[in-house]
Amino acid sequence: MPTMKRKAVYAASLDPITNGHLNVIERVAPLYDELIVVVAVDPRKTYMFSAEERVRMATSAVAHLKNVTVDVCIGQYVVKFADSACARVIIRGLRNFKDLDDEQVLAEENRRICPNIETVWVPCLPNLMHVSSSMVKTHVGADPNWEEQAGRSVSADVVKMLKEKYILSKAKKHWASLMAAVGNPFSGNPKGSEKIFKGILSAYSEGHRAYHNLEHIVNMLDELDTVADQINDIEAVKMAVWYHDIVYKVTTKEEYVPGDNELHSGLRAKLDIEKLGLTESLIKRVYMLIKATEHRGAVSDSDAMYLVDLDLAILGKPEKEFECYERGIRTEYAIVPSADFYKGRAAVMKSFLDREKIYCTEEFQKRYEDAARKNLTRPKKTLAWV
Predict the structure, then answer these.
(1) What is the pLDDT of residues 312-357, one digit of tens each?
(2) Of residues 338, 356, 346, the one with CA closest to residue 376
(3) Parallel/antiparallel/unpaired status of strands 34-41 and 68-74
(4) What is the rounded CA–CA span in Å between residue 111 and residue 310?
(5) For 53-103, what is each residue's pLDDT tens digit?
(6) Of 5, 161, 164, 359, which is the most buried if we count CB atoms within 10 A?
(7) Rounded Cα gap, residues 249 and 5, in angstroms
């Protein structure tokens, strides 16, 4: 008669999975023939990540453990899930004595539901006792260095997903604010604005975008808010920020057509603004502003000057952020051979350095001019800047 497999279930919300969760899983896995990590979903609760996203994160985290699988439990007791999976043990992690009080109550309730299922408590290691999904989420957006702090408690993949959620949340707020401003005060947001927004998100999520993505747009809009009192037509400038990179095709030197991306971005803006039922004057204004982001000549319009400076603000950011930007641009132009890319990139950067001022407005000159020139002239191991 074949020996019955020793099977256990480790269940948690895993919203998101932390180093504490993973440590318990890694310590318990060798004790059983099969360990099922269960993403527990309570329909009464609100989560940051969807069940599918949490399963994906957990699956990636335990991929190195051959006897560990990941499943999801939605709308039923975990103890019933364990029973249906022929597991006889539920694993629960303990961080402190308060957890123990709560877990004792839960274990007794589970025993009443399925008397044949035992609960085994596994204490967290001392260096992980403070780690929780809730604690990790409190870091998101709290400080410019929040990613580094969150990264102490979760994997790099989870930090990336946390950042994507944070950026998306800010993007939704910026779009809602703009639609409220351009909409009818009596009938509300322009008709079709949600569909338009989904199209914008889709464009900025294209696989080849490593810098010219939604984060770039949100960063520009965040900074625009700090100079809003200097802008004459704030709605037009905000709309131009949203659309100035919506068409972003990467080309080789032979394929390159100056202003092509900006031209098609302006046309996309025109079509969408028409669908929103907004004015012809706004369409023309936004198109003009987008054309200014070609960065190919002097700009005289005040609002266009601020838009151009917002687009170039990254050049004056701290060294670490600037280097991340440079890596993103190289990733986007992966199809271009290194020698050609670095030669072309050096020419672009030299064109900025040759200007009397990199930035058009006094505000951005004060903020970023000196730092931008240092970034563009700092010796680099791989980039042949002049």
Answers:
(1) 999 999 999 999 999 999 999 999 998 888 888 888 889 999 999 9
(2) 346
(3) parallel
(4) 60
(5) 999 999 999 999 999 999 999 989 999 999 999 999 999 999 877 778 888
(6) 359
(7) 54
Q: Which is it for strands 89-94 and 68-74: parallel, antiparallel or unpaired? A: unpaired
CA pair distance 358, 376, nearest whole angstrom: 11
CB within 8 Å of 333: residues ≥ 6 apart? 250, 341
Q: Extract the tokens encoding 85.
A: 């999976």
For residue 117, the Cα-to-chain-centroid distance in whole angstroms is: 40
User: What are the strands, taking DSSP E only, across 264-384?
Assistant: none
Predicted local confidence at residue 385, as pLDDT: 44
Q: Which amino acid is at 234?
A: I
- Which helix (H) or strand (E) segment holds residue 121: the answer is strand 118-123
CATH topology of domain 7-139: Rossmann fold (3.40.50)
Cα–Cα distance measured from residue 143 to residue 223, given in angstroms and rounded to the nearest whole number: 16
Domain boundaries defined on the chain: 7-139, 155-377
- Residue located via tokens 């890596």: 327
Residue 2 pLDDT level (bands cut at 50, 70, 90): low
To which H or E segment does residue 313 belong?
none
Q: What are the residues whose beta carbons fall under 8 Å from the beta carbon of 218, sequence distance 6 or more?
A: 167, 170, 171, 174
Say if residues 294 and 221 touch (Cβ distance below 8 Å).
Answer: no
Q: How far is CA 279 from CA 12, 181, 322, 356, 385, in A?
A: 51, 13, 38, 37, 44
What is the arithmetic mean of pLDDT over 238-259? 85
Tell me which CATH homologous superfamily contains domain 155-377. 3'5'-cyclic nucleotide phosphodiesterase, catalytic domain (1.10.1300.10)
Catalytic residues: 21, 45, 95, 133
